């Protein structure tokens, strides 16, 4: 995967989270791609993602990803205050938070390489790991990656906030939670917090 950053984890409640160390690779968002034709000269239709019934305003993902989570949300997720570290991955504006004492971390990516929103993720539906999760606040959530890394406590989710805009949340759960908690559920919970913040600034 070209960028997949650090992925985070939540415990079973927002107030009691034990996150584990992030991988050294700082990103996960993948560039858009056109599915190969099943037959020469024939281009199969792209898998269609859910339509966004209540899209957030245009440009909502053009801001600072380090403001995607409030200080209070970060403290609840990591168990301690943490400053976000911003980075342009070449596909997304990313922010990474870490609790070095616990070896835990969170990454949120505002992906500018997905001009068609979740359609860019659905184009890779038959490649690697792909799982539709329950929506958050009415916005579709899809866990995806080159492979299913939940057995190792990792997951990244893409969230559509408009038909032409999506962001990603990446997580890695603590070693003590591997095999007990679903990392994709943890990533979904982080995306829910991001949606709340984005709506507040919309």
Describe this structure in words.
This protein is of the alpha+beta class. Helix content is 15%, strand content 26%. The chain contains three helices and seven strands; from the N terminus they run αβββαββββα. A seven-stranded antiparallel beta sheet has the order 1-2-3-7-6-5-4, with helices on one face. A hairpin with an 8-residue loop joins β5 (139-145) and β6. Mean pLDDT is 80; it is low at 5-26 and 33-38.
- The tally of helices reads 3
Rg from C-alpha positions?
Answer: 16 Å
Q: Total strand count, please?
A: 7
Structural class comes to alpha+beta
Oligomer: single chain
List keywords for this structure.
globular; 202 residues; 3 helices; alpha+beta
In terms of topology, how is this protein built?
Blueprint: H1 71-78, E1 85-88, E2 92-99, E3 104-111, H2 119-122, E4 129-136, E5 139-145, E6 154-162, E7 165-172, H3 183-201
Antiparallel strand pairs: 1-2, 2-3, 3-7, 4-5, 5-6, 6-7
How is this structure best summarized?
The protein is α+β, with helices and mostly antiparallel strands. It has helices spanning 71-78, 119-122, 183-201, and strands at 85-88, 92-99, 104-111, 129-136, 139-145, 154-162, 165-172.
């Amino acid at each position: 995967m070209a960028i997949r950053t650090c992925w985070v984890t939540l415990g079973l409640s927002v107030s009691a989270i034990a996150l584990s160390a992030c991988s050294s690779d700082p990103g996960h968002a993948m560039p858009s791609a056109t599915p190969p034709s099943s037959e020469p000269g024939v281009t199969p239709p792209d898998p269609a993602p859910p339509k966004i019934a209540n899209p957030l305003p245009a440009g909502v993902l053009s801001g600072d990803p380090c403001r995607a989570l409030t200080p209070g949300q970060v403290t609840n997720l990591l168990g301690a205050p943490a400053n976000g570290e911003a980075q342009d991955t070449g596909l997304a504006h990313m922010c990474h938070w870490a609790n070095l004492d616990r070896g835990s971390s969170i990454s949120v990516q505002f992906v500018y390489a997905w001009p068609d929103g979740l359609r860019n993720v659905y184009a890779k539906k038959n490649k690697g790991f792909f799982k539709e999760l329950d929506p958050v606040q009415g916005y579709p959530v899809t866990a995806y990656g080159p492979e299913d890394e939940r057995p190792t406590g990792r997951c990244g989710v893409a969230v559509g906030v408009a038909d032409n805009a999506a962001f990603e949340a990446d997580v890695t759960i603590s070693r003590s939670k591997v095999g007990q908690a679903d990392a994709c559920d943890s990533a979904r919970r982080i995306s829910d917090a991001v949606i709340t913040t984005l709506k507040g600034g919309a």
